[in-house]
Amino acid sequence: VRKTSVYILYAFLIAGCVTPRSASIFGLTFSDQAARALIDMDCNGVRDIYQGVAVCEEKSPRMADVRVKIPPAPGRVIFSDGLSKKVVDFNWRKDGFLWWKRIQLDRPWVPLDIGELSATFGEVPVAFDVAGELDGVGLIVTRGLVYHRICNDRDIPCSRLVVDYECSGRVKNTGDGQLGSCNRMSGSMARFRVPLKTLSYELVTGAKIQVRSGRSSWTIDHTVTDKDVQAGEFKFTYPQVFNGPDLFTVAVYQREQGVPQRYRTNILIVGYDPRWTGIDNPHWLEQKGNIEFCIPMQSELLQITDMGSAQSSSKACASMPASGQVCAFAWDRESGDLTYTCVKNGKEVRWGGT
Amino acid sequence: MNWEVLLKLLPSLLSLFGGAGPWSLVAMGVAALGAVAGVAYLIKKNNDRIDNVERENAGADAGNTSVDLRQQSEANGEWEKEAWEKFQSEKSVKGEGND
Description:
The complex is a heterodimer.
Chain A (H helix, E strand, L loop, with lengths): L1 H14 L22 E6 L2 E6 L1 E6 L7 E4 L5 E6 L4 E6 L2 E2 L7 E2 L5 E4 L9 E13 L3 E13 L13 E4 L2 E4 L6 E6 L4 E6 L12 E6 L5 E5 L2 H6 L1 E6 L5 E13 L2 E14 L10 E5 L2 E5 L5 E5 L5 E4 L3 E5 L3 E8 L4 E8 L2 E3 L5
Parallel strand pairs in A: 3-11, 14-20
Antiparallel strand pairs in A: 1-2, 1-4, 4-9, 5-6, 5-10, 7-8, 10-11, 12-13, 12-15, 15-18, 16-17, 16-19, 19-20, 21-22, 22-25, 23-24, 23-26, 26-27, 27-28
Chain B lengths: L2 H16 L3 H68 L10
Helix pairs in contact in B: 1-2
């Protein structure tokens, strides 16, 4: 009897519907997790894939074209512009016998219906959560932010100011029509640099440089000195990056031939908790006509075939026939992270195309 | 079946667990299955509760973050507008800018 009951319990666990949840052992909330969701966005006619944070400035209103990557599991995308909230369901389940339900993989990307919102001049901030739900695993949530701005160079100035800033060990910069964004760990300081001479303008002694952090209301009000001009730059440091989004506005005012001129830009810095640890993509190797996906630790695998079926696996490796495109997702419930690797014809490709 | 009948049958049912015959074995098997099913049900119920809480948290996160970002955007916009108007209204000082 004891043996039978153990087998039955094991069967339940294998069925994957009664594994106890172990969330929140680190005490991290969704807001503490890094924004890692993939965003496919058209900005000024150019489509690009962003991870976590996407910023865009355009000079004429149009229908926004923003899509977010979803996991091959049933779930929903919840997105909000700060005024309203919308939900898009994806990969619905088809009921089967008891716990054996079939997932209908209907699409790899979900479009965010923010078209009407971006049809006006000004800023449209959008935050979204992609929540995928798997039996036996629970909810896996990835996050992202989109900051869309439409300027007209009259009451809503367009961005032209060049600012260099450190982002996770790299130096990035803003430019003409190009806003800045950074997804980085919170707690430490952020360094910025305003070059005074660029291809399109030159800042001279007396010019006013003003900086404001939207999160903390921290400001800098600096007048460019001869020393700054000699150095060719003005540097400033933000003492501590917080968890969550922090929108910086950097503006410079000066008179050119007596006419007031302004140069401005925005940089969206999104901090995540230092306790958060992401996971790597599943690693793969090809062996005897099979693709073997492996993960070393702390995550589970989800195998996806080209036909759209999904099968979860808690093993370190999963082997699949190398026919067509095969993918493996890895997720870690504790860190709320989700990554994937797809292989086609012996090369890594994006799942579902871009 | 009412309670009186059930109470009368109870000693006979309980005696099954104390015996050594095949029916006792079946009764113990049924009891073990019931216990496993009960534990599984409780775990599933708790998992559903956690999933529901997290589903709500995910929605709340999107709402809170977007409201936060919108407030920042509006506050920065007001601050920038005031600074620009103030700068425009100031008189030109010698040595400032290219004038």
